[in-house]
Structure prediction request, 657 residues.
Amino acid sequence: MEKKVHSANPASEKLILLAEDQKIDTCFDRAAKMKPCPIGEIGACCKNCHMGPCRLVGKNAEEDARGVCGAQLPTVAARNLLRMIAAGTSAHSDHARGMAYTLLDVANGKAKDFKITDVRKLYRVAGYLEIEFEGRPINDVARDVATKVIEDFGRQMGGEINFAKRAPKKTLERWRKWGIVPRSIDREVVESMHRTNIGVDHDADHLLLQGLRTALADGWGGCMISTDITDILFGTPTPVRAEASYGIFKEDEVNLVVHGHEPLMAEILVDVVNEPEIVAYAKTKGAKGVNLGGMCCTANEVLMRHGIPTAGGFTNQELGIITGLIDLMTVDVQCIMPAIVEIAKKFHTKVVTTSEKAKIPGAQHIQFDEHRAKEVAREIVRMAIDNFPNRKAQGSHISDKFPVIGGFSHEYIEYMQGGTWRGSFRPLNDAIMAGRVRGVVGLAGCDNPRVQSTGLHKYLAIELIKNDVLIVSTGCGSAACGTSGYLQPEMALEHAGPGLREVCEAIGIPPILHLGSCVDNSRILTIASAMAAEGGLSDEIGGMPAVGIAPEWMSEKAIAIGCYFAASGVPVIFGGNSPVEASKEVTRIMTEVWMERFKGAFHFEPDPEKILALALDYIDKAREGLKLKKYEYGKFGTEKVLMDMAARREIRGHAGL
Ligand code: SF4
Ligand code: MSK
Prediction:
């Protein structure tokens, strides 16, 4: 029998085999042993009260089966999905709340180790919030910005979240028509939990509309707030060189890894690890210095702004420890496997939890406090240094690593297309209109041990760019591309179709743009809005030749993200089995009804070839709907990419616009 390959990353596979040899249990073993519950997996189980859990199974389950209270499958499947959205939204948004509070503390002089790094971005955000900034002290503007976004968490008595109006007018009108503009983040989450409580909302469509409202509170609320405030505090990313995979760990330095999602402590660590006293202390223990690396989305945050290397995404967290080279791993919130503590015991690695919200039995807890940030960070770095002499020979010191170019923010992509004063999305829109770029795909979401981990990302990344589709990636999608070498512009350009390659070379961008962490999916929303405003394509996000794909998703946060893209007008395709498969009605609403109302849809498709075909079909149909030039590989005329106005008018003429 052919041996199963667990990961498409050869370095990960080596570590998985080593773990098997040493009888170290990893998520790959547990995934093989623990099959998903076939009832829960498809959304047919309800445990919302203690008359259940009720399993709505059987031949004609959709028509006949009822829980003890009488709830039928569409209700149960929709309620389950809504709870996933609420949980995902609360995770991103609680992270955003922490960022907003920190900005307020900085403005009030209470978080002395932080500062406002990007004043230009502060003014830009103040502009969105209609806050006067000209001639005012920076801290006053920052205080007003923080206060106004904090209102978005708990606003009472109706209203709309502030950033909803950053969406194209037509997109916002659709939301208003269907009553899904979020009032406030916490309110939508609370209402979702209320409506899914036993005996409240039983109408699947009505439940799913609340799902979209909650998801929009995530995308245009929590995620967008988090991205913007992180940019204000630590700088809006610009392209930066980094490295990815396990080879980032150094034999002769203390390896300190930041894992999780929140950037606050990681940002302080970036400064602290290079302090002369810290380096001198490391030398007293036989190390040359302290090497800071990252994992998952905390990694993405500091990679985007400082070029801190990443060891990879979700499924690399246990394997990283098996290298035997991590002296200390800090974990804050989200996507942290508690199993790392058990694996760490087999090596010398210390695991330190740092958030007041998250503890893991067996891990040491050192609470991060933004009011004495450097002090806490230094304590952690010293602990890592003290652990360096305990490093053992066991493990596997893997040397594979790839160069990565990250740091593509909305602002930078705009700047690349015209410079500081003339930045726009015109060249990209023109390239799409001319058929050089067939469309755009957001490749995002987790990597997953239930499939060949990172393999679906790799397959889709290469096939899409071959087909002249520009990729914007985030989260562990970016990590999967980075640890495969695809975030090296030269390597990606080699694979890209001729039209995409020409455009990328003309603008000076790679075919796969690393946009940041999971919360930075909000950058895709604002880029799509800017493309709509630029003209020549759709005048709303819906109808653009754009698709969202999360082929290996596993987190509830991914479901919230998928839903906010669908509500914003983007067809979304997730890999794996559908968590609402039990209900044809719920599936119909999420695909057909959402398409009619919002020009977005949410599909689940386990077969990667079908994901690719569906994505390209959506893109081509959108092109047809916009009356753009039919996409043909290698055929896009001879005109230059960066065209003058007459040439652009000519193309619009051909396109019948
Ligand atoms: Fe069963 Fe209804 Fe209770 Fe769900 S809410 S567990 S379907 S009785
Ligand atoms: S970390 S949510 S595994 S993308 Fe943002 Fe990765 Fe998915 Fe977590």
